[in-house]
Design a protein that fits this description.
Protein name: TetR/AcrR family transcriptional regulator
Distance between the termini: 82 Å
Radius of gyration: 21 Å
Number of helices: 10
Oligomer: single chain
Keywords: DNA-binding, Transcription, Transcription regulation
Largest sheet: none
Length: 207
């Protein structure tokens, strides 16, 4: 009996992985609005009952797909950042890794275009903060602790930079030139440099 239970559990997990894989492919190729559950179950070669065993409906399947995409991007950011011993280099490496990962066509469509539209901005932002934005906040916090950034609130800076990079990723995804990432970095790097303690303006004196 335990062996049979284990087999069924593995089969259920395999079905879930297949639904996520095919859902991601269809959402990326056609967009959320053009994908129906009948198409997903046909591509996954399962029944609608099997799909509803794992997900409440199309929106729930999309949310799970989006979570997987965001986790992949966050992992790419963390890997690039963790390879750098210097805290400033960790920040810049993570930012570049985010731009590279987020411009993949399936990532762009699911994470940056359909994600906010389907889930709503607040829910999408909450998921983003749990993944890539969290690494950005941690990097800025480490830089403040190291004295590289002045002791100012980290959260507003993290939100501003995250928004700028999301917009940059959308811009990059609509282009195919080999130098486009370098062009974006030329614009973004001075914004990052302006945060540094040795570059940031001091407090204004009152009159």
């Amino acid at each position: 009996m335990p062996e049979a239970t284990g087999v069924r559990a593995r089969q259920r997990e395999q079905t879930r992985r297949t639904l996520l894989r095919e859902g991601r492919r269809l959402f990326a190729e056609h967009g959320y609005a053009e994908v129906g559950l009948s198409g997903v179950v046909a591509a996954a070669k399962v029944t609608k009952g099997a799909l509803y065993h794992h997900f409440d409906g199309k929106a729930a399947l999309f949310r799970a797909v989006l979570e997987g995409v965001q986790e992949e991007v966050a992992a790419a950011v963390a890997t690039a950042a963790d390879a750098e011993p210097d805290p400033w280099d960790r920040l810049t490496a993570g930012c570049r890794a985010f731009l590279a990962a987020a411009t993949a066509p399936d990532v762009r469509r699911i994470m940056l275009v359909d994600g906010p539209a389907v889930l709503g901005w607040s829910a999408w932002r909450e998921m983003d903060e749990a993944n890539s934005a969290r690494h950005l906040t941690e990097a800025l916090t480490d830089l403040v602790a190291a004295g590289v950034l002045p002791p100012r609130p980290v959260e507003p800076a993290a939100h501003l930079l995250s928004g700028a990079m999301n917009e940059a990723a959308l811009w990059l995804a609509d282009r195919s030139g080999p130098g486009d990432l370098d062009a974006v970095w030329e614009a973004l790097e001075p914004m990052l440099e302006s945060l540094r303690a040795d570059r940031a303006p001091g407090p204004r004196s009152g009159r």
